[in-house]
């Protein structure tokens, strides 16, 4: 273990804290259990509980300064805050940290040396330090000897802001400061904030270098064909990128440069609720491996993870270094994508299991960023609720969606990549009547798209969204490919399709001014004559 004086944090004004610099896995297990953060499950993983079980997007701020003022798309998830508020909170935090224990990891965000940033990740919790060790790109000993820190993250969950004095919304805050190249966070133990904070930084910085930052997973076939999978939370980025027949590049955050794809991360963060060991063997294995962090997974009486137990949250997670997945792509780099897949978990059961998108539909779907949540537990709510999150990741994208959409369109055009919309959600009816698409069918359809099998297929045009649906795919039973055929009641399908088309149009109004008229013209048409 490397114990040093506070010198590594002297620039922050922290003088008397005990600093653990770049501790390894064994040490972090020891610290986390000593500090009462969690326990080791019988099969190996460090298992922890957190006060918040998801991100806190409403408590995320960006300091408004000369660097951000004209480049950030303010409003929505991008809430401005003053540099003075940041400075005061940082000052309070550093005084709070005096005399405490802190963990520091020096890691990279980005596997491409041209674009990576060196991150100094300072955390109060040992388990966050292990999470960061697993999830970021670990420097080689030579790189570590000469490590350049571009950004600092200071994350102290037990530090609570006072909203009446500190200029923030609650006791929780995540604030990005581009001038000082720092993120400070307090109030939340959810480890995902560490990685999504730096994701936001790269999403802001990279477009100026001509790099498209993306909320997507990526893998590559034996002949070098790269595929990207965009999608909001729960749509299948992690699940579908871990494909035994392809090499994993990464499961969540990537950049597209003039030479291809690079991962921002060195690990994966998989949802593990009710994970099926047969359908997802690779991810399942990580939940029984030493070194993994299991967040909010309940242990049974024998000390083994019970993945069916959602009593703490449905958002149970496994965080593991990418090397735990067999068949990874060395270096987490790939060439230009041959296929781009937009994943959506449509709980309305309207969108086809797979369809092919035109260039205009690509822009339209990317800017819309649709998925649908199943109804919650509130009384009387029986219908799914639509989520439109632009760029399939609104909470992480500081710039105007049009900027990202134009970059993507250019990259897709230059590379000639095919673009597909894949519904991993409901079929045969909306949530309640229908059922979730089988993972086996989704995988088969994706393989058909990636292998070029669909290039020679016959397509029919679905009227409301104008989507091109293959009429026949080997291994997929009849009546699955066209969602209208999958519903017992075709009229009910038409009505739901019209309703969803109206929701798309309503959402897109705020973007119409900023996009090419051809994109707007590709909008869904609720008044189209139904099929059949
Ligand atoms: P996040 O951004 O939160 O990491 P994600 O896009 O990576 O989300 P996954 O973690 O892959 O999403 O979650 C998809 C979930 O849906 C998994 O629990 C998976 O088992 C389940 N699932 C059910 N049916 C399908 C399907 N047909 N395709 C993909 N996933 C499915
Ligand atoms: Mn994921």
Please explain how this structure is put together.
This protein has 532 residues and is α/β, with parallel strands linked by helices. The protein folds into two domains: 2-40 and 51-209, Phosphoenolpyruvate Carboxykinase, domain 1; 222-242 and 336-520, Alpha-Beta Complex (Phosphoenolpyruvate Carboxykinase, domain 3), CATH 3.90.228.20. Strands 1-2-7-8-9-11-10-5-6 form a nine-stranded mixed β-sheet, sandwiched between helices. Strands 12, 13, 14, 15, 16, 22, 23, 24 and 27 form a nine-stranded mixed β-sheet that branches. A hairpin with a 4-residue loop joins strand 10 (173-177) and strand 11 (182-186). It is globular, with a radius of gyration of 23 Å. Adenosine-5'-triphosphate (ATP) binds next to helix 7, strand 17 and helix 11. Pfam families: PEPCK_ATP (PF01293). One of its GO terms (molecular function) is phosphoenolpyruvate carboxykinase (ATP) activity.
Offer a quick outline of the entry.
With 532 residues, the protein is of the alpha/beta class. 25% of the residues lie in helices and 24% in strands.
Write the layout of secondary structure elements.
Elements: E1 3-4, E2 18-21, H1 25-34, E3 38-40, E4 46-48, E5 60-63, E6 79-81, H2 83-97, E7 101-109, E8 117-123, H3 126-135, H4 141-145, E9 151-156, H5 163-166, E10 173-177, E11 182-186, H6 192-205, E12 212-220, E13 226-230, H7 237-241, E14 247-250, E15 253-256, E16 261-263, E17 267-271, H8 281-286, E18 293-295, E19 298-299, E20 305-306, E21 317-321, E22 333-334, E23 337-344, E24 354-356, H9 359-368, E25 370-373, E26 385-388, H10 401-415, E27 418-423, E28 426-427, E29 435-436, H11 439-450, E30 459-461, E31 468-470, H12 483-486, H13 490-508, H14 517-521
Parallel strand pairs: 2-7, 4-18, 5-6, 5-10, 8-9, 9-11, 13-23, 23-27
Antiparallel strand pairs: 1-2, 3-4, 7-8, 10-11, 12-13, 12-14, 12-15, 15-16, 16-22, 17-21, 18-21, 19-20, 24-27, 25-26, 28-29, 30-31
Bound molecules: adenosine-5'-triphosphate and manganese (II) ion.
